[in-house]
Specification:
Its EC number is 2.7.11.30. The protein has 5 helices and 12 strands. With 304 residues, the protein is an alpha+beta fold.
Protein backbone atom coordinates (compact mmCIF):
# COMPACT_ATOMS: atom_id res chain seq x y z
CA UNK A 1 0.00 0.00 0.00
CA UNK A 2 1.36 3.40 -1.01
CA UNK A 3 1.62 6.00 1.74
CA UNK A 4 0.94 9.70 1.37
CA UNK A 5 3.46 11.69 -0.67
CA UNK A 6 5.52 14.55 0.70
CA UNK A 7 3.23 17.43 1.80
CA UNK A 8 0.11 15.25 1.56
CA UNK A 9 -2.03 14.72 4.68
CA UNK A 10 -3.65 11.30 4.69
CA UNK A 11 -7.44 11.39 4.87
CA UNK A 12 -9.24 8.36 6.26
CA UNK A 13 -12.27 9.82 8.04
CA UNK A 14 -14.32 13.01 7.67
CA UNK A 15 -17.11 14.67 9.59
CA UNK A 16 -20.47 13.69 8.02
CA UNK A 17 -23.68 15.73 7.73
CA UNK A 18 -26.72 15.55 5.40
CA UNK A 19 -29.52 18.10 5.56
CA UNK A 20 -31.72 15.73 3.47
CA UNK A 21 -31.01 12.71 5.64
CA UNK A 22 -34.70 11.77 5.85
CA UNK A 23 -35.10 11.73 2.06
CA UNK A 24 -31.77 9.99 1.44
CA UNK A 25 -32.38 7.63 4.40
CA UNK A 26 -28.98 8.24 5.98
CA UNK A 27 -27.75 9.46 9.31
CA UNK A 28 -28.06 13.20 9.85
CA UNK A 29 -24.55 13.58 11.25
CA UNK A 30 -21.57 11.60 12.42
CA UNK A 31 -18.32 10.34 10.91
CA UNK A 32 -17.74 8.91 7.43
CA UNK A 33 -15.04 6.40 6.49
CA UNK A 34 -13.37 7.50 3.21
CA UNK A 35 -12.71 4.80 0.65
CA UNK A 36 -11.38 5.00 -2.91
CA UNK A 37 -8.81 3.77 -5.37
CA UNK A 38 -5.34 3.37 -3.93
CA UNK A 39 -3.68 5.74 -6.42
CA UNK A 40 -6.28 8.47 -5.83
CA UNK A 41 -6.19 11.04 -3.06
CA UNK A 42 -9.07 11.44 -0.63
CA UNK A 43 -10.41 14.68 0.84
CA UNK A 44 -13.09 16.05 3.15
CA UNK A 45 -15.60 18.69 2.10
CA UNK A 46 -18.34 20.94 3.46
CA UNK A 47 -21.13 22.91 1.77
CA UNK A 48 -23.46 25.51 3.27
CA UNK A 49 -25.67 28.51 2.56
CA UNK A 50 -25.51 32.02 4.01
CA UNK A 51 -29.04 33.39 4.41
CA UNK A 52 -28.61 37.01 5.51
CA UNK A 53 -25.84 36.09 7.93
CA UNK A 54 -27.44 32.83 9.14
CA UNK A 55 -25.31 29.80 8.21
CA UNK A 56 -27.35 26.83 6.98
CA UNK A 57 -25.23 23.67 6.75
CA UNK A 58 -26.02 21.51 3.70
CA UNK A 59 -23.57 18.59 3.56
CA UNK A 60 -20.28 17.28 4.93
CA UNK A 61 -18.36 14.13 4.08
CA UNK A 62 -15.65 12.51 1.97
CA UNK A 63 -14.59 13.93 -1.41
CA UNK A 64 -12.70 12.00 -4.08
CA UNK A 65 -9.51 13.06 -5.80
CA UNK A 66 -9.68 16.80 -6.73
CA UNK A 67 -6.56 18.87 -7.45
CA UNK A 68 -8.34 21.96 -6.00
CA UNK A 69 -8.15 20.25 -2.60
CA UNK A 70 -4.49 19.24 -2.72
CA UNK A 71 -2.41 20.25 0.30
CA UNK A 72 -5.23 22.27 1.90
CA UNK A 73 -5.11 21.82 5.66
CA UNK A 74 -8.22 23.94 6.28
CA UNK A 75 -11.64 23.96 4.63
CA UNK A 76 -11.89 27.46 3.12
CA UNK A 77 -14.35 28.60 0.41
CA UNK A 78 -12.94 31.27 -1.91
CA UNK A 79 -15.80 32.10 -4.31
CA UNK A 80 -17.17 35.64 -4.03
CA UNK A 81 -20.91 35.09 -3.42
CA UNK A 82 -22.21 31.71 -4.65
CA UNK A 83 -25.63 30.29 -3.88
CA UNK A 84 -23.99 27.35 -2.07
CA UNK A 85 -20.55 27.73 -0.52
CA UNK A 86 -18.13 24.79 -0.96
CA UNK A 87 -14.73 23.97 0.50
CA UNK A 88 -12.48 20.90 0.62
CA UNK A 89 -9.32 19.93 2.45
CA UNK A 90 -6.95 17.07 3.28
CA UNK A 91 -6.57 15.42 6.68
CA UNK A 92 -8.84 13.56 9.05
CA UNK A 93 -11.83 15.64 10.20
CA UNK A 94 -10.43 18.76 8.52
CA UNK A 95 -13.99 19.71 7.48
CA UNK A 96 -15.18 20.02 11.06
CA UNK A 97 -14.56 23.75 10.80
CA UNK A 98 -15.16 25.69 7.62
CA UNK A 99 -14.95 29.34 6.66
CA UNK A 100 -15.28 31.74 3.72
CA UNK A 101 -12.39 33.92 2.55
CA UNK A 102 -13.11 35.39 -0.93
CA UNK A 103 -10.26 35.46 -3.40
CA UNK A 104 -9.62 39.15 -4.03
CA UNK A 105 -6.84 38.53 -6.54
CA UNK A 106 -8.65 39.23 -9.82
CA UNK A 107 -7.23 39.71 -13.28
CA UNK A 108 -4.61 42.44 -13.54
CA UNK A 109 -6.07 45.86 -14.18
CA UNK A 110 -4.57 47.67 -17.13
CA UNK A 111 -3.99 51.29 -16.32
CA UNK A 112 -4.15 53.49 -19.38
CA UNK A 113 -1.40 56.04 -19.62
CA UNK A 114 -2.63 59.60 -19.19
CA UNK A 115 -3.52 61.42 -22.37
CA UNK A 116 -0.93 63.93 -23.50
CA UNK A 117 -1.70 67.48 -22.47
CA UNK A 118 -2.51 69.60 -25.55
CA UNK A 119 -0.10 72.40 -26.25
CA UNK A 120 -1.04 76.05 -25.87
CA UNK A 121 -0.89 76.52 -29.64
CA UNK A 122 -3.39 73.69 -30.22
CA UNK A 123 -5.77 75.14 -27.62
CA UNK A 124 -5.60 78.57 -29.26
CA UNK A 125 -6.18 77.14 -32.75
CA UNK A 126 -9.21 75.07 -31.71
CA UNK A 127 -10.62 77.99 -29.70
CA UNK A 128 -10.16 80.73 -32.30
CA UNK A 129 -10.89 78.75 -35.48
CA UNK A 130 -14.72 78.67 -35.06
CA UNK A 131 -14.77 82.38 -34.15
CA UNK A 132 -12.63 83.23 -37.18
CA UNK A 133 -14.79 81.22 -39.57
CA UNK A 134 -17.98 82.78 -38.17
CA UNK A 135 -16.53 86.28 -38.46
CA UNK A 136 -15.51 85.71 -42.08
CA UNK A 137 -18.98 84.38 -42.89
CA UNK A 138 -20.60 87.46 -41.34
CA UNK A 139 -18.25 89.80 -43.22
CA UNK A 140 -18.99 88.01 -46.50
CA UNK A 141 -22.73 88.21 -45.89
CA UNK A 142 -22.46 91.92 -45.07
CA UNK A 143 -20.38 92.59 -48.21
CA UNK A 144 -22.89 90.72 -50.40
CA UNK A 145 -25.75 92.66 -48.80
CA UNK A 146 -24.03 96.00 -49.46
CA UNK A 147 -23.24 95.11 -53.08
CA UNK A 148 -26.47 93.38 -53.99
CA UNK A 149 -28.18 94.49 -57.17
CA UNK A 150 -31.91 95.01 -56.80
CA UNK A 151 -33.99 93.70 -59.69
CA UNK A 152 -35.14 96.09 -62.36
CA UNK A 153 -38.39 95.61 -64.13
CA UNK A 154 -41.92 96.76 -64.57
CA UNK A 155 -44.16 97.86 -61.75
CA UNK A 156 -46.87 95.31 -60.99
CA UNK A 157 -50.36 96.75 -61.21
CA UNK A 158 -52.67 96.12 -58.26
CA UNK A 159 -56.39 96.16 -58.91
CA UNK A 160 -57.21 98.05 -55.71
CA UNK A 161 -54.38 100.53 -55.03
CA UNK A 162 -56.28 102.17 -52.17
CA UNK A 163 -56.91 105.87 -51.76
CA UNK A 164 -54.24 107.86 -53.63
CA UNK A 165 -52.26 110.52 -51.79
CA UNK A 166 -53.07 114.15 -52.55
CA UNK A 167 -51.72 115.58 -55.80
CA UNK A 168 -49.26 118.28 -54.74
CA UNK A 169 -48.17 121.05 -57.05
CA UNK A 170 -44.43 120.42 -57.05
CA UNK A 171 -41.93 123.23 -56.87
CA UNK A 172 -38.70 121.84 -58.36
CA UNK A 173 -40.33 121.48 -61.76
CA UNK A 174 -43.70 122.69 -62.99
CA UNK A 175 -45.03 119.15 -62.56
CA UNK A 176 -48.37 118.05 -61.12
CA UNK A 177 -49.23 114.49 -60.08
CA UNK A 178 -52.58 113.41 -61.52
CA UNK A 179 -53.32 109.75 -60.71
CA UNK A 180 -51.63 106.55 -59.59
CA UNK A 181 -51.22 104.07 -62.43
CA UNK A 182 -49.41 101.22 -60.65
CA UNK A 183 -47.92 100.08 -57.35
CA UNK A 184 -44.91 97.84 -56.98
CA UNK A 185 -42.26 96.53 -54.65
CA UNK A 186 -40.21 99.72 -54.53
CA UNK A 187 -42.91 102.36 -54.82
CA UNK A 188 -45.71 103.61 -57.03
CA UNK A 189 -45.99 105.08 -60.54
CA UNK A 190 -47.95 108.29 -61.11
CA UNK A 191 -49.28 109.84 -64.25
CA UNK A 192 -48.24 113.50 -64.07
CA UNK A 193 -48.28 116.64 -66.21
CA UNK A 194 -45.08 118.53 -66.98
CA UNK A 195 -45.87 121.74 -68.83
CA UNK A 196 -47.84 120.54 -71.87
CA UNK A 197 -46.95 116.83 -71.83
CA UNK A 198 -47.80 113.82 -69.71
CA UNK A 199 -44.94 112.08 -67.92
CA UNK A 200 -44.54 109.06 -65.64
CA UNK A 201 -43.22 109.62 -62.12
CA UNK A 202 -41.93 106.62 -60.18
CA UNK A 203 -41.81 107.53 -56.48
CA UNK A 204 -39.53 105.60 -54.10
CA UNK A 205 -39.69 105.86 -50.30
CA UNK A 206 -36.45 107.04 -48.76
CA UNK A 207 -35.83 103.52 -47.39
CA UNK A 208 -35.32 102.29 -50.98
CA UNK A 209 -32.72 104.90 -51.83
CA UNK A 210 -30.32 102.26 -53.20
CA UNK A 211 -32.85 101.06 -55.79
CA UNK A 212 -33.59 104.64 -56.83
CA UNK A 213 -29.87 105.38 -57.22
CA UNK A 214 -29.30 102.24 -59.30
CA UNK A 215 -32.06 103.11 -61.78
CA UNK A 216 -30.97 106.75 -61.90
CA UNK A 217 -27.35 105.80 -62.63
CA UNK A 218 -28.40 103.51 -65.48
CA UNK A 219 -30.55 106.23 -67.05
CA UNK A 220 -27.69 108.74 -66.71
CA UNK A 221 -25.19 106.47 -68.47
CA UNK A 222 -23.82 108.21 -71.59
CA UNK A 223 -25.53 107.19 -74.82
CA UNK A 224 -28.81 105.99 -73.27
CA UNK A 225 -30.93 108.02 -75.69
CA UNK A 226 -32.44 105.68 -78.27
CA UNK A 227 -35.81 105.39 -79.96
CA UNK A 228 -36.34 101.89 -78.52
CA UNK A 229 -35.40 102.83 -74.94
CA UNK A 230 -37.58 104.57 -72.34
CA UNK A 231 -36.75 108.29 -72.40
CA UNK A 232 -35.39 109.60 -69.12
CA UNK A 233 -36.28 113.14 -68.04
CA UNK A 234 -35.06 113.76 -64.48
CA UNK A 235 -34.35 112.34 -61.01
CA UNK A 236 -35.22 114.43 -57.96
CA UNK A 237 -35.51 114.31 -54.18
CA UNK A 238 -38.70 115.77 -52.74
CA UNK A 239 -39.40 116.60 -49.11
CA UNK A 240 -37.20 116.31 -46.02
CA UNK A 241 -36.71 113.94 -43.11
CA UNK A 242 -38.97 110.92 -42.83
CA UNK A 243 -41.38 112.41 -45.41
CA UNK A 244 -38.71 112.60 -48.11
CA UNK A 245 -39.46 110.91 -51.46
CA UNK A 246 -37.19 109.99 -54.37
CA UNK A 247 -38.58 110.58 -57.87
CA UNK A 248 -37.69 109.22 -61.30
CA UNK A 249 -39.38 111.09 -64.17
CA UNK A 250 -39.65 109.40 -67.59
CA UNK A 251 -41.85 109.65 -70.64
CA UNK A 252 -45.41 108.38 -70.18
CA UNK A 253 -46.96 105.44 -72.07
CA UNK A 254 -50.72 105.34 -71.84
CA UNK A 255 -50.93 101.55 -72.24
CA UNK A 256 -48.53 100.88 -69.36
CA UNK A 257 -45.84 98.21 -69.34
CA UNK A 258 -45.73 95.59 -72.09
CA UNK A 259 -46.13 92.76 -69.58
CA UNK A 260 -49.32 94.20 -68.10
CA UNK A 261 -50.70 95.08 -71.53
CA UNK A 262 -50.25 91.54 -72.88
CA UNK A 263 -52.02 90.10 -69.83
CA UNK A 264 -55.27 91.81 -70.79
CA UNK A 265 -55.07 92.30 -74.56
CA UNK A 266 -54.63 90.31 -77.76
CA UNK A 267 -52.25 91.64 -80.40
CA UNK A 268 -52.30 91.08 -84.15
CA UNK A 269 -49.50 89.45 -86.09
CA UNK A 270 -48.24 92.81 -87.35
CA UNK A 271 -48.31 94.26 -83.83
CA UNK A 272 -46.43 91.22 -82.51
CA UNK A 273 -43.74 91.61 -85.18
CA UNK A 274 -43.43 95.32 -84.39
CA UNK A 275 -43.03 94.57 -80.68
CA UNK A 276 -40.38 91.92 -81.38
CA UNK A 277 -38.41 94.21 -83.70
CA UNK A 278 -38.39 97.21 -81.36
CA UNK A 279 -37.50 95.04 -78.34
CA UNK A 280 -34.63 93.46 -80.29
CA UNK A 281 -33.34 96.86 -81.33
CA UNK A 282 -33.46 98.14 -77.77
CA UNK A 283 -31.68 95.07 -76.34
CA UNK A 284 -29.06 95.11 -79.09
CA UNK A 285 -28.33 98.76 -78.38
CA UNK A 286 -28.06 98.15 -74.63
CA UNK A 287 -25.58 95.32 -75.19
CA UNK A 288 -23.56 97.32 -77.71
CA UNK A 289 -20.35 99.12 -76.77
CA UNK A 290 -20.47 102.54 -78.48
CA UNK A 291 -17.16 104.47 -78.46
CA UNK A 292 -18.69 107.93 -78.88
CA UNK A 293 -22.33 109.01 -78.66
CA UNK A 294 -23.34 112.40 -80.12
CA UNK A 295 -21.18 114.62 -77.99
CA UNK A 296 -21.40 112.37 -74.92
CA UNK A 297 -18.82 110.01 -73.52
CA UNK A 298 -18.49 106.37 -74.65
CA UNK A 299 -21.46 104.13 -73.90
CA UNK A 300 -20.49 100.86 -72.15
CA UNK A 301 -22.16 97.56 -72.92
CA UNK A 302 -25.01 97.00 -70.45
CA UNK A 303 -26.19 93.49 -69.60
CA UNK A 304 -29.07 92.81 -67.25
Amino acid sequence: MLGPSHGEAETRECVFYNVDWEIDKTNQSGLERCEGEKDKRLHCYASWRNNSGVIELVRKGCWLDDFNCYDRQECVATEENPQVFFCCCEGNYCNERFTHVPDVSGPPVKIKPPLPTPSLLSVLIYSLLPITVLSMALLLAFWMYRHRKPPYGHVDIIEDPGPPPPSPLVSLKPLQLLEIKARGRFGCVWKAQLLNEYVAVKIFPVQDKQSWQNERDIFRTPGMKHESLLRFIAAERRGTGTEAELWLITEFHEKGSLSDYLKGNTVTWNELCHIAVTMSRGLAYLHEDVPRCKGEGPKPAIAH
